[in-house]
Amino acid sequence: MSSGPSFGAYHDPSAEQPVCPRHPDRVTYVRCQRCNRPVCTDCQRPSQVGVLCVDCVKEHQRSLPREQRAPRFTNRHGQAVPLATYIIIGITALVYALQWAGQLIPGFPDVYNLFLYSPLHTSWVALELSQLTGQSLFQPWRMLTSALVHSMATPLHLLLNMAVLWLIGRQIEQFLGAAKFVALYVLSAFGGAVAVLFLAAPNSAVVGASGAVYGLFAALWMIGRRLGADTRGITVLIVINFAFSFIGAGISWQGHLGGFLTGLAASTPVVLADKKLASAGSTPETRKRANRRTWLGLGLVAILLIALTFLGGLLIDSQAVLGR
Questions:
Q1: Fewer CB within 10 Å, N- or C-terminus of the chain?
Q2: Which residues contact 71 (CB under 8 A, 6 or more apart)?
Q3: Which domain of life is it from (predicted)?
């Protein structure tokens, strides 16, 4: 079937002209190789079999297994956009703005004090004090919200954490995928708070995404080793950062250490599943099994952290909290 008037043939202007279904005001003689409908330049998608329309491309993507589908958001080079990394940076920056609003606007909630974490917030002493004072002091969600707030006296605290997240988060998200990357980030923040619960003073308070960032350091090191890359650079960077953590004043080395160890633990099932997939061959079934193993490993890390939180809360006594 001809897609348009042949060269030298008479064309009747009054005859109905083919138009793009999505853009009826555009005449086009190019047709989709799959559905044979007219397709304008904006709706054309090149493929190995010729030009396809947008609707046929979407239908084909839906028919593929989830792990084989093309990324929904890509840059001009066709690479997946690390949306999870950008969203975390955006949320953290927004929370920092809300911190300042709490200080500058009368009656605005004090986000800084509402989100910071202290071992008291996950101790059984908090439950006892809540009964005595009538105020809820047991607030375990602060173990995660503390990763969203940063020092207001030193904006560099936020800038450094977000800069590192931007630099290495995009690489890790590309390897893991958005969902597993977010899980790794959240678990590392959680693990940093668990280390603070065990290693810091009961009345101490911590803020910042450093624990989560150190978890990303660990994951990048593990992934680099798995891919056979030269990891000497990241190793030196980790050593230097830990040196500053232990030497610098006002730095929660406990949170850094906990985040790093959790990052190692959380990235281990990812690396093992990828290694198993490489040896068994990449098929839909082996990919599903690898995905299940990865999420199972991440789930076990989460359960371990919850159990440690429960145990750490039992070890804090009222005398340590009240300073008696």
A1: N
A2: 80, 81
A3: Bacteria
d(CA 247, CA 263): 22
List the beta strands (DSSP E) in the chain. 44-47, 50-53
pLDDT, residue 64, reads 46
| Sign for the pseudo-dihedral over CA of 71, 74, 76, 82 | negative
Please give the Cα distance from 238 to 230 (Å, whole number).
14
pLDDT of residue 68: 47
- Using alpha carbons only, what angle is made at residue 89 by residues 84 and 93, rounded to the nearest 5 degrees? 145
Distance CA 324, CA 321 (A): 8
The low-confidence residues of the chain, meaning pLDDT below 50, are 1-3, 6-11, 64-65, 67-70, 324
Task: Write the CB contacts of 13 (distance below 8 Å, at least 6 apart in sequence).
Answer: none
With a CB cutoff of 8 Å and minimum separation 6, the contacts of 47 are 33, 57
Q: Which domains does the chain have, with CATH numbers?
A: 1-63 (3.30.40), 85-314 (1.20.1540.10)
Looking at residue 83, its pLDDT comes to 92
What's the CA gap between 260 and 219, in Å, rounded? Answer: 9
The letter for the amino acid at 91 is: I
Which residues are paired to 250 by β-bridges? none
Q: What is the CA radius of gyration of the chain?
A: 27
Distance CA 89, CA 162 (A): 6
Tell me how far CA of residue 186 lies from CA of 147, 212, 253, 298, in angstroms.
9, 7, 18, 11
Residues 6+ apart with CB under 8 A from 108: 101, 102
